[in-house]
Amino acid sequence: MSKLIIVSNRLPVSLVKRKKGVAFIPSAGGLATGLSAVFNPAQSAWIGWPGLPTEKIKDDTGAIERELAARHGCIPVFLSREEEENYYAGFSNRTIWPLFHYFPKYTEYHPPQWEAYRAVNQRFADAALKAAEPGDTIWVHDYQLMLVPEMIRRKAPDATIGFFLHIPFPTFEVFRLLPWRNEILKGLLGADLAGFHTYDYAQYFMRAIQRLLGYESHLGLVNDGQRVVRADAFPISIDFARYAESGLDAEVMAEMAAYRERLTGRKVILSIDRMDYTKGIRQRLEALDLFFTQNPQWKEKVVCILVAVPSRADVDRYQSLKRNVDETISRINGKHGVIGWTPVEYLYRSLPFKALAALYNLADAALITPVRDGMNLVAKEYLAARRDEKGVLILSEMAGAAAELGEALIVNPNDIVGMAAAIKEALEMPENEQVRRNATMRRRIARYDVARWSADFLARLDEAKKTQARLGERRLNPATQARMLAACRAASRRLFLLDYDGTLSPYFNDPSAATPAPETLSLLARLAAKPNSHLVVLSGRGKDTLSEWFGHLGISLVAEHGAACREPGMSEWEVAGAAPLQWKNEIRAILELYADRTPGAFVEEKELSLVWHFRKANADLAMARVNELKDNLVALTANLGLHVQAGHKNIEVKVHGVTKGQAAMRWLGRGGWDFIFAAGDDTTDEDIFAVLPAEAWSIRVGLVPSAANYNLPSYRETLAALERLAEC
Ligand code: ADQ
Q: Domain residues for 511?
């Protein structure tokens, strides 16, 4: 039976040193509880660091391994103190964590720590490879292990690998700062599915790939030429029922009663996070200070309970943050407090679930204002705990959770004035409005709880694998190629219909640089010279370019996607139709306007069409412009008998009905072919595939869905296949 293998930095249980040997305790944190819904030790394995450096475990590792396997379904990756320092405290928490949370100033770049990150990632990958059997699903988690998917893939090309990032994926301008950015992207592309909390993060990931590696993506599918990898959003959630029921628990109720008695009717603002500079604790305190200064009427009537869980205390940045928070709280309490009323009650510790639940159930407002947060589960936990649907969530727009919790009071965590105003608004919000807002958000969280989240991810991973398999089946494999060669050999009349750019040649930033290589010209000449064979090159390029490149080969040429044809022996090009061309002036003006507004874009004029090229333009800007331009063009061309066609990094406006497919009919219609081969990499080539008889050998270059019968990954494999055809 196949199993699920979870790979994360920490195991769901942690080793602690006791007087006699070691003991296991459940690990704190959202990941362990989050995945408990899918982690069944009988059918799964969990690979991770147990939390104690090897120096402290000494000789017990064998016994620990056995116990972890037998009682918890876990496989430990032991780390030495030095590995922990360089891989975890170092590269993970001094490089990736600050950078991905938009703190480039805090980000350190140390090559030895990168090396340690790589080495430790390899250890995790090796452990996964050892545990995995064919058919298993491997699910790798988070920023500490971004190289693991590719490391597994290299040794197990068919493995099913999912990756989920629990922190934000930053925009390109921030991500590009990382010296090892390409390695990180390639590491992640080893997965079949890369999951993120929000749609924005997934988009940033795909844009980084496009900008840095040049791989295109379409509808969430990234194509590196060999495989397709899906990127998608899966907003992580919580165990809704556990929180929703917490208020009914006797211990929780008793704890709430104790709080209420002590608070003597005062309202409660709750603030809970790990002690981390990304959580915006200092800014939040400044806002509270301002709130009390501006609203003295609220003094003694409200208490802020601020809970901070100790975190990464071995990283200096966290030590100075702690000192700063301590000092700020003392200052605020000194400034506003009176005997019998402390404005900020501060707990620097981890709390057991019931204590946390009591606070959620009690608080009149939750002040959750990270300056950057992948998701933020506290916000969801607070809402879920409130069966009465009361309480006000004040939430930072920089938390991934804000994408789902739009009914909260959304604030900018850097806007101290705005946050102070939101605190006042929260405390004064009528109960019916609280209920109205919270009811909607609670329904949303209840529907997409953590069990749904993990099931959804695993189902999409399965689908991603199926998409690959579908594309894989259509790949022109050696056995099919052998059949194709035999058919070619046996045929008495052969027709070759070939696109040029992307099919017989790579793409160049400058289209004029794509001059055919001598070997390619020789290949085309040999194909054309085969007895009873006819070769047609069908391109989007203009007549002059095609004449110059291929005119001497004695083959047929189709220019401008079907607008003009020339057969061997013809002195002139034959232009399709003689449509009036006044439309060109109007459309040219629009295309030129867009080219001026988009550095790198340019307009090309052809016989029956105008083309707006954006290959050289900034990809993000171009995408924004393309959508706008297409909208404009579609509206304008509707009554002009024109057609707007999106090609490979270009948009073409041309006379309706002029396609490569229609041009191909010129030869197909003559009949008598018993071997037809067609290859193309572009949407314009789909028009050819659509008119081919079923028995034709049609090949879409690039692993994307197509009307062609087969796919090949790139122009290289296409040239190789043609080489074999030329020889047969
Ligand atoms: P974190 O940065 O740890 O997680 P968060 O999502 O808020 O942030 O999760 C914290 C968890 O710790 C919550 O489940 C909360 O209940 C618990 N917790 C907080 N304070 C506690 C306390 N004093 N005692 C005990 N438990 C406490 C990272 C990312 C987030 C992302 C999660 C999950 O930074 O953005 O939401 O992973 O993907």
A: 474-576+658-727
